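Quick one: structure tokens for this chain, please?
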Amino acid sequence: MSALYDADFVLWSEQQASLLRRLARGKKVNDVDWPNLVEEVDSLGRSAISAVRSLVQNALEHLLKAAAWPMAATVPKWLAEAETFLDAAEDDWTASMASRIDLATVYGKALKHVRKLQFEEGPAGPLPEACPVTLSELIGGDVDRLAARFRVPNR
């Protein structure tokens, strides 16, 4: 069974699902690839968390760009894209993800990426060193209100 797992994951997963259905109906089955099946079920959760984390980071990058270059013609596009990312994150969000996504780390990566950008409008304006919103405020939040929280008054 492990050979099929390595050779054709799709066929392996279909066969494992069929075996699990039979097992659920009370039939005896001997061919369940338990080690790989357990690993795949475990990785499903990690993948879901990773997907939401990535969507949040993309949204943060767009919110930061809008804050760093507030006069750029592309600000409405950046905010619309941030909203799209946050809507997708909200669709896949589960409560248990709150303790598994380190917003400070995600924000730090987004900030690092944005600080490397250059646009014709000139250098980036000031940006908050720490994320000015919580994860729960981001997920399902109003993008215009969120964007306002990322603006730092000129010093």
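The CA atoms of residues 60 and 126 lie 15 Å apart.
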